[in-house]
Amino acid sequence: MARLADYYLVVTYDLDKRVEGEGQGRILQRFPEKDWEDSPFPQGVELFCQPSGWQLYAERQPPSFFVAVLTDINSERHYCACFTFWEGLDKQQLQKASVSEVDEVDEAPAVVQSAQVFAPKSLVLVSRLDYTEVFRNCLGLIYTVHVDGLSFPLETLIGNLLTCVIPIAGGSQRTITLGAGDRQVIQTPIDDALPVSGSTVAQLFRQLGIINVLYLFCAALTEHKILFLSSSYQRLTDACRGLLAIMFPLKYSFTYVPILPGKLLEVLSTPTPFIIGVNSFFRSETQELLDVIIADLDGGTVTIPECVHISLLPEPLLQQTQTVLSMILDPELEIADHAFPPLSTQPSALKIQDKEIRGVFLWLFARLLKGYRMCLHLIRIHPEPVIRFHKAAFLGQRAVLTEDDFLMKVLDGMAFAGFVSERGPPYRATDLFDDLVANQGERIRQEETCPHKVMTHVKELAELLFKNENPYPAVAMHKVQRPSESSQNASEKQTPFPMLDDITVQLFIDHAAAKLTTAPPVVKAEVKGMVPSGPPLGDAVDRNGHVMANSARRLEVVRNCITYIFENKMLEAKKLMPAVLRALKGRAARICLTQELNQHVLQNRAVLDDQQFDYIVRMMNCTLQDCSHIDEHGIAAALLPLVTAFCRKLGAGITQFAYSCVQEHMVWATMQFWEAMFYSDVQNHIRALYLEGEDGEQHNNTEHQEGPAGGREISALDLASEQNRLWPTLTKEMQAERVQKEESTVFSQAIHYANRMSYLLLPLDTSKNRLLRNTGLGDVESVSNSYVTNSIAGSMAESYDTESGFEDAESSDVANSVVRFINRFVDKVCNESGVTNEHLKALHIMIPDIVQMHIETLDAVHRESKRLPPIQKPKLLRPVLLSGEELVMDAMRVHLIPDGREEATGLMGGPPLLPAEGAIFLTNYRLIFKGTPTDPLVGEEVVTRSFPIASLTKEKRISVTIPMDQFVQEGLQLRSCTFQLMKIAFDEEVASDLAEVFRKHMHKLRYPQHVQGTFAFTVGQSGKMVVEHKAKDKNQSLKTLSKNLVKSAKRTMGRQHVTKKKYSPPTWENRSSFQSEMDEDEISVSEEVDSSSLTLSSTMRSSDRQTMSNVVERACCRDYQRLGLGTLSSSLTRSKNEPFRISTVNRMYTVCRSYPGLLIVPQSIPDTTLQRICRCYRQNRFPVVCWRNSRTKAVLLRSAGLHAKGVVGFFKSPNAQASVPSQADSTSLEQEKYLQAIISSMPSYSESSGRNTLSGFTSTHMSTSDSSDKLRQPKIGALMKQVMGTKEDLPGTFSRGALGQRAKVISLSQPKVSGKARNAARGKWGSIRGSGRLSAYNPDVGTRLAAKESPQSNGGEALFLRQQKAYLYIIGDKSQLKGGKQDSFQHWEVVPIEVCDVRQVKNSFKKLMKACVPSSSTSDPNMSFLRCLEDSEWMALLHRVLQVSVLVVELLDTGSSVMVSLEDGWDVTTQVVSLVQLLSDPYYRTFDGFRLLVEKEWLSFGHRFSHRGAQTLGSQSSGFTPVFLQFLDCVHQIHLQFPMEFEFSQYYLKFLAYHYVSNRFRTFLLDSDYERIELGVLYEEKGERKGPQVCKSVWDYFDRLHKKTPIFYNYMFSPEDDEVLRPYTFVSNLKVWDFYMEETLSEGPSYDWELRGRQERVAEETADKPDSGGPKSQRHIVWPCYDSLNKAVPDAITKLLHDLQSLEAELGQPSEKWKDTWDKMKNTQRTESKLESKPSFSSSLLMSSNLSHQRRSQGVYLQESGVGSSINLNLDCEASTTSTPVPGRPSTSTLYSQFQSTESENRSFEGILYKKGALLKPWKPRWFVLDKTKHQLRYYETRQDKECKGVIELADVESVIPGTPTMGAPKNIDEKAFFDLKTTKRVYYFCAQDSLNAQLWMDSVQSCLSDA
Fold it and tell me: Please, are residues 847 and 819 in contact by the beta-carbon 8 Å criterion?
């Protein structure tokens, strides 16, 4: 029974005390005045009566009521019901009040005399019971009696109220009356453990909505701070009460203040969690709270600060909960879409709805916490149960592991700790939740998926909850008076609330107290009972390895392996081992392992021999490796007894146990694990203690118990509940005895665990305190450690002692740390389990002794373990080296660890080739790993990975866990730009200082001091240096040239280049003097005789002139002659009509260090001008001609970007030049002259004689280019649009072409438009870009490049104009060309584009490498290959370069010259210029041409290979930037699209890509010709060499290899004459180069061919040994990442050529070179094809020279798509509106099986036949094609025609017979030339040219018919 109300008080406004204008309340009266003993009076009530402050009001407010909750020091809650009304103050009282007080009230008393002021007064009840309505009624009644002046004494009412006693629970009802004619019925809840919520929960959901309340619910459970805001106090209380109600069965144990007074707002900044309500009046003060979740009840919002992360319920629980809640709160939602909704679907009444919602949360908790009783550890039963929760086991059952943040936080929270201590005891009263968890588990599991079933369950729960609160729903006899209306309104006459008589009230209270003492106690005994545990949880599926968990096959493997080990069948066990180690990733297999091992333990001991021990330890390590530190699956717990059981004998009386070899796991250093283990052991022992006792004493009782349990063994909790039931019946002695027994059980376990812990924490070699050093014992860090325990190593290198660096004295450190750790453990568990202090002291004394003893035994074991014989390791394989390649460091044993590429690891099928065991070798050229896979199934294979040391881009230290041995080792991760990654872990036998030496050597070789330190220079020089110095006088000419050059260049260089430290060049090998290409001995390069410059021949000595022949012989010069750009003649005079000349102004490399010696410049420009012009350009790289289009005579120029001043001078209009100094003036004029000279050299310019009119342009244009140009012209505009990027492109980023724009096909409906129609006013760039961003550039390029639509007024149809195009386009960098203008009479245009700078290429390449060769495998979808590839933007960069190149090709092809002038002129410029030449000129697509192109544009024009490749120490910081690789990738993309246009194969490009970074050849070293001459590299490539084996030039190497093998040759090569290629450039058309992805583990990279040959020879030698085995299979498995595919599966032609050679060898014939064989074949093929009128499809597919690739001319294809508009840059005439045929162009109109219809593939026979038309039509000649493939006879108007006029299906033909001439037949033709073709529909009459031809036709058709 409890008092309804503890205290009654009247609180009033305190007129005397006011602080800073704020009023205060004071307690006027309080009853009783003495505190009750069982509930002291709570302090500070007056603050809570007016939470927003005590104030006076000018008007009377209506009475208010709310309940505040106060919590006292014992965390008891007191409910304060406050009833507040307002009373008028009289004059005397007011005069006491200061003026300031009244000022606050709006009306000042001076003005209005009669104005009255009202002060609040509160009637307060304080109670420990929460009956809001009863309190409201009682206080209301007291107020009514006072206001209405009823005749009841208030003292009686209050006396009755304070003496009213009601039961707390039990479902009774009481009627109470205060003695004023009132009556109220109080119903007590049936079970007071369940919270009473009224309708507060439903109200809370109405105010905030489902999601918001769920957020608050999760926030409260995970201990966040929650603040409610509302303007209603009662609502704040209700919301808080509702939130607590849904948290049941967890109880909130932090600060809980539903109404917080304004004065106490600083409470909100407390660091602890809370649930607090505050009036929204104080909203502004809550704004700066950073970590508080604010729920605004009035606005319905929940605000979560950024820094707060709320862990929500795990899915699918969250979703299911939301669904069910919405079915309760909004039942109409489900049927909102039904055609025939039910008639009424109202939600239940609020009260019922409230209980339904609570039912959902009960159901939710039952699911969250199901099976929790299975995870309770009972440590003590007497004197009272001590229970611990085993969190790890609970999580393990759920397989949620750590991914479920929410559950982890809840389990760690205070509320759950309270839950365990409250609900843990096995013998107590049970409630609804216990029943739900124990008995409804199965039902809940079935409901999970079906919300409707959940609803029915929830409704049942709701009924129970409702019944609990309203046990007698029918009774509602309330009779309480309310104040009359009149008294409420007549406010003036109201009397103040009277003071009550203390004595009267006190008498009432004393009287009642006396009555209670005499009355007999009404004790309703609490019904205690045994708490049911519920069914045990089934095995949850292992979420990470669900497949593994249930695979019986895997468990079988584990069992078999263990059986083999114990039967000593070691070979069998070894084979199974890798499979077992893989299987042990799954939980089931790990549990199976512990069970199997248990069976082999007898009397706690199992002695093994060395090998058995080794295998068992390895399996244990593998099992423990995947245990988390809390060991939620209990694997470590199951292994703990085993590691102290398995052992091996090491020597006399010395035994080594398995625990000394499995210490490397973090689980052993985790306190939580040891506690859980300890508690579960204690529980088992205590259970055994009582079971034994029961078996002895109450035998029949146990039988009786087992009956109902169905034979299930009694759990410790069941036992405990039975013991607790019997406890009161035992005698004192028996009780004491039981307590003592339990205590000593715990104590003995503590000693046992102190021993166990010392076993697993003390390392075998205690002189290294390694485990402790790395873990800081007890922290949950991973234990990584780089030493190896000797057990597994079997033997230990002695070096350990020298290496360890720890003194023996420090072994005490290990001991101390372990002792401290064990002491902490013992203190904690003993205190919790009630061990006596004496015992605890004894333990503390024992622990150091235990540890010390164990250290002594370990020392002996350690000593003995060193004496074990070493384990056999695979023997190291030696790699094959190139000639001249020498080992720098010999074999170091390492493991090659798998990286992110999954092909080799067996994950994608095939055997696991990695990890492999072998050695790493460092030579002066490469880094080589060679070894064998650790998996015994592929143990015979050899794994090789290598890359040139010069290509190393990143090296980082890693620590690696080798899967077989479980030890962490130090390792290196090496990444190379040949797309190779080596992750190696050094074997334990490799000392760590040796690994350091290895790194240093590697660095030295990777970054030599000077380029002469690279392999290409050092190879083969070691012994020859002395000899070479004697050859002094030879080759004097080269020497002098080299010296002169260097001197003069340094003289004139000025400050532009800092001279590098000069090395004396190594002398070259002796060779005969050079032979020049031409016949004359003395070659002079002709030049204008100018006063300033004398000719070369007159200024150079003859020896120098001799050298000049070398310059002439360089690639540039040969190419210039081929293009007819500058001819060399010995005469000084020369015809003026040659527009260009070869200038020698740079012969000493004084004008530009990075240009070649000979340059092509316009005829009219003297050298002096060049020297001035070059200053305007960066690095002095002024524009020079590098190629000329043989058809349009347009030229391609290259230069660097302009210096800033150059730009200004060049582009500013003349009047803006005042501020520019005159020198810059003259330079810019000279620049203009220079450009004008280039333009003048173009035939199209000279013909139009510079007229700038449209007509003039058109006529010259028509005359200089073929008709297809006419149609191609306007499309360039669209191209330009793309190349220049749009407004959206950010500067500096890579624009992806015109992604935002649509490229449209512009048809030329009216190509001839008179000049008058030019719309001159339009801005120039209008058509090229929709944005205004580039309008600053120049006014007219757009209208000239892209035909512009101008709407006409008449009829409004679009008119297409062709404006005049420029003669010279300058491709420049956007960022440089800002702000320049240009007058309209110049003939050049600047096309601003965005180039990628070098940094972008560098970063992109890094990301590309990580995408293609990831360092570790990841399952993150954001890290997938394609996503990483896209992030790298490599393809976008290729697209950009190709796009610009195609634009330039277009411009050149239409007859405009182009000057590429980007960055410093040696990166992007080189790429673009080379690609343009490759696309435009078929010559460069041959072997010789491509070599020439690279030598000319990349080597001679100074691409900085050494700098970009970071080849020396100096350039290390700049990093590796693969500009050349990017170019090769572009070539590869073009090659893919036009496979028949290239003489070389894809392999040739890969070969170059590999060797341009390998430093094996000197070709790609150094940054310019000047540097090469300085080092004497340039001219030594010619002439014979001494050592034939050492190739210094990659080109010579190519030639030699090409002669031997067709590896570089492209069999599909059949070029068309003068074909200009226009590849598609969009990213979607580009493919990832397989060079980046492929790998050959059998032999390493295949780009060093000598190695391949040698490896094959070695393999043959080993294979020749006699083999005793049976017949060998001819079949061979080819693994994609292991075998070299082109070797294992060669293409047919290569194989046939190879077979031919081997047959010739067998027959003893001199074998013919493969190229000759091939050429012969090709020629015979051609002659055959001429004999037949047309070869058939099959025979000519390969060879026929007119085989056309499907991409060859595939018309304009412009997509109308907003995204990624793709322009096929094959701007041909096919798609235009005209239909005039262009001779020799095949068509796309009828594609058949990807080949054009009119091509030879489908033409079995063709020719001209006359055909008679239908009735009354004449005979007409037609071109007929007989097509066997399609089985038809087609005819065309002419041979070139694309459109087929008609088709005769051969299937319909009945016969073909000789015919007779009919009317209108062609004259003068033999009668026998006529024949008829009869089909099912009609007869066709034909006439051939002669009888022979007719016969041929008839035979052909006949053969087709018979074939069919």
Answer: yes
341 versus 1149: the higher-pLDDT residue is: 1149
The better pLDDT of the pair 709, 1429 is held by: 1429
β-bridge pairing 118-127 and 7-19: antiparallel
Beta bridge partners of 65: 83
> Strand (E) positions, 833-965?
887-897, 916-923, 926-933, 943-948, 952-961
Residues facing residue 1730 across a β-bridge: none
CA–CA distances in Å: residue 1152 to residues 430, 957, 1141, 1473, 1569: 97, 44, 18, 19, 11
For residue 1059, is pLDDT > 70?
Answer: no
839 contacts 847 by C-beta, under 8 angstroms:
no
Residues 395, 375: Cα–Cα separation, whole Å = 10
Residues 1692-1728 have pLDDT tens digits of 888 888 888 888 888 888 877 888 888 888 888 778 7
Length of the chain: 1908
What are the tokens at 651?
């020597």
Q: Which two tokens stand for residue 352?
A: 């019922």
1421: left (phi over 0), alpha (psi -120 to 50) or beta: alpha
CB contact burial 1195-1208 (16+ within 10 A = b; e otherwise): bbbbbbbbbebbbb
First and final C-alpha spacing in the chain: 109
d(CA 1767, CA 1792): 23
Whole-angstrom distance, CA of residue 201 vs CA of residue 215: 15
* DSSP annotation of 785: -
**Cβ-based neighbours of 51, under 8 Å, separated by 6 or more:** 68, 233, 259, 260, 261, 262, 279
Other beta carbons less than 10 A from residue 94's beta carbon: 18
Give the model confidence (pLDDT) of 825-841 as tens digits: 999 888 888 888 888 89
The residues near 602 (Cβ < 8 Å, ≥ 6 apart) are none
Which tokens in the block code for residue 954? 């990143």
H-helix segments, 833-896: 837-865
As a whole number of angstroms, the distance between CA 295 and CA 288 comes to 15
From residue 1436, alpha-carbon distances to 817, 888, 1298, 1466 in Å are 58, 41, 12, 21
Q: What is the 3-state secondary structure (H, E, C) of 564-596?
A: HHHCCCHHHHHHHHHHHHHHCCCHHHHHHHHHH
CB atoms within 10 A of CB 908: 11
How many Å apart are CA 671 and CA 629, to the nearest integer?
A: 9
In tens, the pLDDT along 1041-1054 reads 545 554 544 444 44
Burial class (CB in 10 A: 0-12, 13-18, 19+), 1092: exposed
Mean pLDDT of the chain: 75
Cα–Cα distance, 1553 to 1522 (Å, whole number): 10
Q: Which CA distances in Å does 80 have to 48, 77, 185, 492?
A: 8, 10, 21, 30
Query: Would you say 389 and 679 are in contact if contact means Cβ atoms under 8 Å apart?
Result: no
| pLDDT tens-digit map of 1673-1683 | 677 788 878 88
Distance, C-alpha 376 to centroid of its chain: 42
Phi, psi at 1116, each rounded to 5°:
-55, -50
65 in Cβ contact with 51 (< 8 Å): no
Average pLDDT over residues 1794-1799: 39
Instruction: Tell me how far apart the alpha carbons of residues 1638 and 1833 are, in angstroms, rounded to a whole number.
Output: 47
Q: What is the pTM of this model?
A: 0.54
Over residues 1185-1211, the pLDDT tens digits come to 999 988 888 999 999 988 765 444 444
Extract the tokens encoding 1147: 């012969």
Residue 1099 confidence (pLDDT) above 80? no
| DSSP helix/strand/coil, 1443 | helix
Euclidean distance between CA atoms 252 and 233, whole angstroms: 21
Q: Is the pLDDT of residue 412 over 60?
A: yes
Q: pLDDT for 792-819, tens place per residue?
A: 333 333 333 333 333 344 455 778 888 9
CB 259 within 8 A of CB 47: no
